[in-house]
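User: I'm preparing a small set of examples for a lab meeting where we compare how different chains pack in three dimensions. I only have the primary sequence for this one, and I'd like the structure in token form so I can line it up with the others. Please keep the answer compact; I'll paste it straight into my notes.
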Amino acid sequence: MRKRKFRRRKMQQMMIIVGIVFVLVIIIAVVILLLKSIKTLKSITITPNFAETELDVDQDYVFTIKGNPAKASLKSLEFNVDDSTATFKKGDKADSQTAVLHTGAEGVVTLYVSKDKIKSNTLTFNVVDQARKAEEEAALAQKAAEEAQMAAQEAAQELESEEEYVVMVIGDNVRMRSEPNTDCDVVRTCKKGETYTKIETVDDWTKIDYEGKECYIKSEFLKEVTKEEAEQFKAEAESAEGDTASETKKEEKKQEETKKEETTNTAATETATTTATDQAAAANQAAADAAAQAAAQAAAEEAAKAAAASAGTVTIQCSDGPASFTKAEYDYFVATWNYTGMPEEMMSHHSAGELHTLYNNTH
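Assistant: Understood. Below is the structure token output for the 363-residue chain.
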């Protein structure tokens, strides 16, 4: 009886020990499963470590690889790239969470990583030769600048062509002829400042349109100007003529006053003379005759001097040497080229024969 109780007690102890061992085994198994689930890879993410959206050829680009959960092992990853000219592989051996893409030729490259049956996100990039692209952009910019410059030049030429030009007579009494020579008929004599439409240049002559007819004027007596410049010259000439007319009127008025004063003085002298005796009158008459004769002689001398001065000669330094001209010729040349501000220099550019021909053709 005692032995049976002992055996029963021992059996109970064994069952308790077996139960405890079974529970411990279950607990250990659960813990192992939990630890294994914590390190089991569920997903993979790759992220570029750069901001470029277009990649350059023959360059290295680094990516970061992250697993979920973070403690999951990233060993034995497969690196996939669809461009045969590029390579995509694991980064530094000390860092298993990086990958490096080395680009090849231009085109589109797609890459991803995978482990077992888990595939990461897919990334796609354009690969461009940046040096060539920069050269193309520079060439396009230069072409655009050249086109803009050409457009500006064309616009300036159009604006210039829109401005109408005429030829203006720059000398007095310039002859217009029916043919480009001095042996033909004179159509008319032109005044300084007159303007005409130019047709073409024929040697030393300019063909112009005069009332629908083709006529000719020596080119040296013409200047090509815009219509606006011609109008301005005409206004200035009219203003100068107005000033000259005003001065002429003032001179005429002064002469009239002088004449009146002389008339008054003469009348007073005659009145005084009539009140004198016959002898005094005769003496006065003789004195008056002598004074009149002296005045006439003085006037004749002054006239002779003026005529001599008018008929005098002026030496002009021509292109073929010094030559003598009349004062009238000299004054005409000065008036012809006075608008340049250098009439003497303009004369020196012509030979003596040319200056004589110029004067004779216009007088």
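A couple of notes for your slides: Residues 312-363 form one domain. The longest helix spans residues 227-274.

User: Perfect, thanks.
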